[in-house]
Amino acid sequence: MSTLLNNLNWRYATKQYDASKKISENDLQTLKEAIRLSASSYGLQPYKVVIVENPELREQLKAVGYGQTQITDASHLFVFAADANLGTESVDQYITNISETRGVPTDALAGFSDMMKNVVTNLTADAKNTWSAKQTYIALGNLLSAAAELKIDATPMEGFNAAAFNEILGFDKLGLSAAVIAAVGYRHDADDSQHYKKVRKSQEELFITL
After folding, report:
1. CA-CA distance, 43 to 37, in Å (whole number)?
2. In whole angstroms, what is the distance from residue 148 CA to residue 9 CA?
3. Which of 16, 78, 79, 176 could be 188's S-S partner, Cβ–Cβ 3.0 to 4.6 Å?
4. One Pfam match, by short name (predicted)?
């Protein structure tokens, strides 16, 4: 079995973290880079990732996260926040980034730009927020895989009051909306969940080849 598959078998949704163990700065940078390199529709990356370290802030978030201790006990809390105001300005910024990164004149990218703007501007507000939120899950998947490679534990979490998170973290003023969170750190020796066998569908059940 490959190292990747071994590491994916090793990981699990950690229930109890060792609050005394912290992720090194080097490993944190690797996790951030893995998220940055994530795929997204058109490459737009319509989200921000907020890393919460402040203990007082995390206590507030735990209170609106149904008291889940992972929020406060993990080394870091990653909050994936969708861009609630995605529009033509975001597309223009992306086009500028492409132009500068690849040395391509912006005029040569006009067709691509117009196509993206047409898609974005024709989405309803709800559809736009849903689409942006979906992109965060791709980035979340990269975080989980990268963490497993580093033998760092991670717990993806949807059980939280998004509106309260937005208020506590000031997302409303930033045009962001919390979509999904992930606690990242190191499992506690007392977490019995680490000893459970991984339960997944078999390949025969999961895949259909046509």
Report:
1. 10
2. 9
3. 16
4. Nitroreductase
167 and 61 Cβ atoms separated by less than 8 Å: no
For the chain, which domains are there?
Answer: 3-190 (3.40.109.10)
* Neighbouring residues of 40: CB distance < 8 A, sequence distance ≥ 6: 46, 135, 138, 139
How many Cβ atoms sit within 10 Å of the Cβ of residue 143? 22
Longest dimension (CA), the chain: 59
List, as one string, the DSSP characters of 142-184.
Answer: HHHHHHHHTT-EEEEE--S-HHHHHHHTTHHHHTEEEEEEEEE
Q: Quick check: 1 pLDDT over 70?
A: no
Residue 19 per-residue DSSP state: T
Give the number of other CB atoms < 10 A from CB of residue 63.
14
Cβ burial, residue 52 (10 Å; 0-12/13-18/19+) = buried
A 10 A CB-CB count for 38 gives 20
H helices of the chain, in order, are: 3-10, 25-36, 55-63, 70-73, 88-102, 110-121, 125-149, 162-168, 171-174, 203-206
28-57 per-position pLDDT tens digit: 999 999 999 999 999 999 999 999 999 999
